[in-house]
Amino acid sequence: MARLSREFYAQDTLEAARRLLGKYLVRRLDGETLAGRVVETEAYVGRCDKACHAYHYLRTARTETLFSRPGTAYIYLIYGMYHCLNFVTEPEGEPAAVLLRAIEPVAGAETMTRLRYGDKPLTPYRKKNALNGPGKVCQAMALTRAENGLDLTGDTLFLCDAPEDAGLPPFPVPERETILTGPRIGVDYAEEARDFPWRFRLV
């Protein structure tokens, strides 16, 4: 099955964050395919970005994955309860990644809903907001620190250009979409970097 190549991830992080919009994240879980269309991303670049965990090439047990080869999944825990999925970019040794902020469900929606809400009733609000945050996406796809370091060119977790590349039916998308850019969320501590327009959304 076709998937984004390692060369795709090796590019400039901001360009990767833009180009990932409209791609499809695919997760193989217990024989089932879960998939979603990427609609929101954020870029993080360690060499110059105070919001990046590896700012100024800080290398710790937590950030080690950021120095991996491009096309590696970097998953970390925030607030002791939410996991966030990132795609390592740029050449190996350059700590940079794209944070996945939101997706639209394409396949496995029932399973993703169960993983998000358990037995809670699916209200219109919950349905609308099921996958519009990095922690929500990871919960819906059962991604935790156990998947940190996964090869995104492998079979367990990958991105592709179209649902058909993963053996899924076509997914209808709007004829015209706009990419909005703006400051990233939750990085007020990062001094001047908090204003970097490194958040990208499809609308």
What attributes does this structure have?
single chain, 203 residues, alpha+beta, 8-stranded antiparallel β-sheet, 28% strand, globular
List the uncertain runs.
none
Largest sheet: 8 strands, antiparallel
- For the secondary structure, the number of strands is 8
The share of residues in helices is 10-25%
- Helix run count: 5
Q: For the record, give the distance between the C-alpha atoms at the N and C termini, rounded to a whole number.
A: 29 Å
Instruction: Output mean pLDDT.
Output: 97
Globally, the shape reads globular
Explain this structure.
This protein has 203 residues and is α+β, with helices and mostly antiparallel strands. The protein is 16% helix and 28% strand. It has 5 helices and 8 strands; from the N terminus they run H-H-E-E-E-E-E-H-H-H-E-E-E. The radius of gyration is 16 Å and the shape is globular.
What's the gist of this structure?
The protein has 203 residues and is an alpha+beta fold.
Q: What's the helix and strand layout?
A:
Layout (H helix, E strand, L loop, with lengths): L5 H4 L3 H7 L4 E6 L2 E14 L27 E6 L3 E7 L7 E12 L1 H9 L6 H5 L5 H7 L16 E4 L18 E4 L16 E4 L1
Antiparallel strand pairs: 1-2, 1-6, 2-5, 2-8, 3-4, 4-5, 7-8
